[in-house]
Design brief:
29% strand, 7-stranded mixed β-sheet, alpha/beta, OB fold (Dihydrolipoamide Acetyltransferase, E2P), binds S-adenosylmethionine, Rossmann fold, 22 strands
Length: 466
């Protein structure tokens, strides 16, 4: 066999992990991205797809185990799309993420001489997430179900299937108490004979179950996402959860009949307690509402924010713009070193949270503005009157920055840009525009926020060329 084709079975040695988490192997000149393979393994695999410049494959059987293999603690590991690298030693996970960033910068970005700092790993590599989103479904992935014959599942999607849910009884990256709540909610839904949302027929009631727990504060928010508002149906669940778990401070019902899978409701109702819970980062307390973004790994977020603060290199006299500011957590964290921080964000509830967060922390030098960063500087006249920024922190979603946003940053012309991203490939794509002729890269500092998953956070600092 000189060239591989779709359907071929082939023995492959996995050399590394690609960005996105697949194993990378070579066969003659062909590159194969192998799902389920970790570096050091020799696997029997099947080729599942042929693309112009590479192939995709699936590891069927491990013939020789990796020296960095460890037994995954999770029962759901084989099928769950969550922590795909639980079977790889954490030190090697970090090593692979480091290599990925180096490759993205040198190959995709063409930045051959840029030094990538050593990735900062997590001390707590289990039970670190302060938020998990689970899905209700009656189309259950049974192959590995620990509890077959359930009328409904509450769990996570298996990879590449929007319609099949793997029932989860214990998720090792969320808090222990959240696992107990998850199982209780599932039992109650079954006991009460509730229906689940059918993603094909668009009927049924229960859609998602989102649990947030402040890592520092222990306050819990449960957000039950349903397709219509029917408080009477949810009251029995609310009563049991609120009665049994005193840490639950808030039970919210987001309602959406949209066909797309989203936990963001068209309307939101408070079923129990407060509309927000609190979490702490450093000395600061943050209020978080159901639909606002908040960093999911509290302990590592603190390290990330300390680094962002260092990279901003503030003296107390600077105007800082915090683009994609969410609930204002970065703005507030760096505010003591700035003259004034202006935060900009799309989601109105996040802006409300940001303003409230500044108030409860007694921060006077932060202001927040709502709007789409694609055009907010052009459409909101108020913003034209703001003082120009010396420093900009930019922390966009995975998709990165819209070209129009890049253009507006270039027009604002800050001396320093601290670009934080959970997707280094869109980050490099955007940075190329900045380094074309106006900025140069001062530092690249990866931070691992999500052990056992393919995700990696990266901070790039750019300085204006005079
Ligand atoms: C990765 S989060 C960063 C949040 C914040 N910096 C933090 O550390 O908590 C990205 C944020 O960008 C916001 N966002 C997404 N698209 C946007 C847009 N077009 N304009 C403004 N904000 C947007 C999201 O709502 C989200 O809060």
């Amino acid at each position: 066999m000189s060239k591989l084709r779709k359907g071929d079975n082939v023995e492959l040695e996995i050399e590394s992990l690609a960005f996105g988490g697949q194993g990378v192997a070579k066969f003659n000149d062909q590159v194969i991205f192998v799902r389920g393979g970790i570096p050091g393994q020799i696997v029997n695999s099947v080729i599942t797809r042929k693309k112009k410049s590479y192939l995709e494959g699936l590891a069927l059987e491990v013939l020789t185990e990796s020296p960095n293999y460890i037994k995954p603690p999770c029962n759901h590991f084989k099928y769950c799309g969550g922590c795909v690298h639980q079977n790889l030693e954490y030190a090697e996970q970090l090593n692979q993420k480091q290599i990925q960033i180096e490759n993205i910068f040198s190959r995709m970005g063409g930045y051959k001489d840029v030094k990538i700092n050593q990735i900062i790993g997590c001390e707590n590599i289990w039970n670190y997430r302060n938020k998990m989103e689970f899905t209700f479904s009656s189309t259950i992935w049974y192959e590995n179900s620990t509890s077959p014959n359930l009328p409904l599942a509450l769990g996570l999607h298996i990879p590449k299937r929007f319609d099949k849910i793997l029932d989860i009884s214990e998720c090792h990256i969320q808090d222990h108490e959240c696992n107990v709540i998850l199982n209780e909610a599932k039992s109650l839904a079954i006991e009460l004979g509730m229906t689940t949302w059918d993603v094909r027929k668009h009927v049924g009631f229960l859609r998602n179950f989102v649990i947030r727990k402040g890592y520092i504060t222990n306050e819990i928010m449960v957000n039950i996402v349903t397709s219509s508002f029917d408080e009477d149906k949810l009251i029995p669940i609310v009563q049991v959860l609120a009665g049994r778990f005193p840490n639950i401070k808030s039970i919210i019902n987001n309602v959406t009949s949209r066909h797309a899978g989203t936990t963001q409701g068209q309307s939101e109702h408070i079923l129990y307690g407060e509309s927000v819970i609190h979490e702490k980062l450093g000395d600061f307390t943050f209020e978080i509402s159901a639909n606002s973004f908040f960093q999911t790994n509290t302990i590592q977020a603190e390290k990330l924010y300390e680094l962002i603060k260092q990279e901003c290199n503030l003296t107390g006299n600077e105007i800082v713009y915090d683009l994609f500011c969410g609930t204002g957590s970065i703005s507030i964290f760096i505010s003591e070193n700035a003259k004034h921080v202006y935060g900009f964000e799309l989601v109105p509830s996040a802006i409300k949270d940001a303003e409230q967060n500044a108030r409860i922390n007694n921060i006077k030098n932060c202001s927040f503005f709502g709007g789409d960063l694609m055009d907010v500087f052009k459409t909101n006249d108020e913003l034209a009157k703001l003082p120009k920024p010396e420093v900009m922190v930019i922390d966009p979603p995975r998709s990165g920055m819209h070209p129009k946003t890049v253009q507006q940053v270039l027009e604002q012309s800050p001396n320093r840009i601290v670009y934080v991203s959970c997707n280094p490939s869109t980050q490099v794509r955007d940075i190329k525009f900045f380094t074309e002729d106006s900025y140069e890269i001062k530092s690249v500092k990866p931070v691992d926020m999500f052990p056992h998953t393919p995700h990696v956070e990266n901070i790039v600092t750019l300085e204006k060329i005079n």
